[in-house]
Amino acid sequence: MKILVINCGSSSLKYQLIDMENEGVLAKGLCERIGINGSKLTHKAEGKGEFELAEEMPNHTVAIKLVMDALVNPEHGVIKDTSEISAVGHRVLHAGTIYSDSIVVNEDVKKVIRDCFDLGPLHNPANLMGIEACEAAMPGTPNVAVFDTAFGMGMPEKASLYAIPQEYYEKYSIRRYGFHGTSHSFVSKEALDFCGLDHKNGKVIVCHLGNGASISASIGGKCVDTSMGLTPLEGLIMGTRSGDIDPAVIQFICNKEGKTVNEVLDILNKKSGILGMSGGISSDFRDVQKAQAEGNHLADTAINAYIYRVAKYIGAYTAAMNGVEAIVFTAGVGENDKPIRAGICAYLSYLGVEIDEEANSHRGKRMMISTPASKVKVCVIPTNEELAIARETKALV
Ligand code: AMP
Q1: DSSP letter string over 328-348?
Q2: Which residues are annotated as a binding site for substrate?
Q3: What's the pLDDT score for residue 80?
Q4: Of 162, 170, 178, 289, which shows the fewest CB atoms inside 10 Å?
Q5: Atom of ligand 1 nearest to the CA of 364
């Protein structure tokens, strides 16, 4: 069975064709600048060179058509005909309170995705375009929606509800949803196996530290709490997002700078986090760490604040679960950044965490980085959202 995984952003489309016999990637690629001048497709097939195509993609329908052409191309392709694709799995950002599991797409599902446009204004419209483009390109092939909010929907109400008048939850479904759900779900379940924990009761904290960053607590792979909220702005300090903040700061900046709420939210989403705190050096940790090493005080403070916030959440989530058995690092920073991992773990000696420095010096590899004597297992497990989406899709079709 071959499953195509599609991840549509507002102007991009990432794809992978996965052979579910061995879960190997047959081909993967990226369409960039969809709807903008200068669109480009980059396609890489197993055992073949990279193929680039500069062709205008005014919308996602055209992009999907080019992806299909690349997949069946006699030179760069990996299948003879698109009928070899058994199903398409789509990453979909938001399903509000309606769905907490992946689902085969029909007209009702599309309506829910559309109804949630205001909860995911950048992603949900693009996700729906991707689904409709696949329906048009491959009539009869099932499409499955895998929601980024699904994992967080399992949180108990004490974790998911904000302390605001209850009517806003009733009227507008304002609650904490959590994002990166596919990654948290995948990594937390992998951690149960990798760390030899009980599949029902294993207590795991996953630190998904990428450009966007979030952290989750789960027991037996089921979400207990997760740091992102109604939108991906809540929680950890991120590349460009502030994470947790006193909401009164928004009103204060609006009044002082004559800005609208939308403008300040844009600043909190795109110009804050590591980028903002470092005085604008970069949202990329490598750049900020370089400045830190050169003695830049703002860079040093930004990195220290980032580490401190993650450590605080680990403390909170250990309390939420009355213990923790495994702490897992994943995504760009979590998989690669040794000083960030070491810095976070330095706060955790009270839990009996002991890091093996040699093991922690590896990058991007599934590794146990705690010593055998450590009371809590600490490891790196690279995330694989595409494979998780493909597995969900296979299970449903
Ligand atoms: P992601 O969103 O998961 O792709 O992660 C992107 C972030 O990971 C980048 O902004 C970098 O800050 C960080 N990153 C990627 N590779 C490395 C590396 N080798 N060392 C340190 N940080 C890295």
Answers
A1: EEEHHHHHH-HHHHHHHHHTT
A2: 91
A3: 95
A4: 170
A5: 19
In degrees rounded to 5, what are phi and psi of residue 30?
-145, 130
37 pLDDT band, cuts 50/70/90, is: confident
Q: How many residues does the chain have?
A: 397
User: Which CATH number applies to 2-147?
Assistant: 3.30.420.40
Owner of token pair 């997760």: 226
- Close Cβ partners of 62 (under 8 Å, ≥ 6 residues apart): 34, 56
Residue 122 reports pLDDT greater than 90: no
For the stretch 299-317, pLDDT in tens is 999 999 999 999 999 999 9
The model's pLDDT over 192-214, given as tens digits with 9 standing for 90+, comes to 999 999 999 999 999 999 999 99
Structure tokens at 335: 């998989």
Which one of 286, 303, 338 would you pick to mutate in the ligand 1 pocket, going by the greatest count of ligand atoms within 8 A of its CB?
286
pLDDT of residue 120: 87
Average predicted confidence (pLDDT) for the chain: 96
Query: Cα-Cα-Cα-Cα dihedral of 188, 194, 200, 205, to 10°?
Result: -40
Exposure string over 185-195, b if 16+ CB within 10 A, otherwise e: bbbbbbbbebb
Ligand 1 centroid to residue 273 C-alpha, Å: 15
Residues 42 and 156 sit within 8 Å (Cβ to Cβ): no
Q: Which atom of ligand 1 is nearest to the CA of 209?
A: 3
pLDDT at 9 over 90: no
How many Å lie between the centroid of ligand 1 and the Cα of residue 366?
16
Delimit the CATH 3.30.420.40 region(s) of the chain.
2-147, 198-380
Annotated binding site for ATP: 14, 208-212, 284-286, 332-336
Q: Give yes or no: 287 in active site.
A: no
pLDDT greater than 90 at residue 278: yes
CA distance 179 to 20: 26
Please provide the CATH number assigned to the domain covering 198-380: 3.30.420.40
**pLDDT band (50, 70, 90) for residue 286:** very high
Q: Is there an atom of ligand 1 within 6 Å of 332 CB?
A: yes
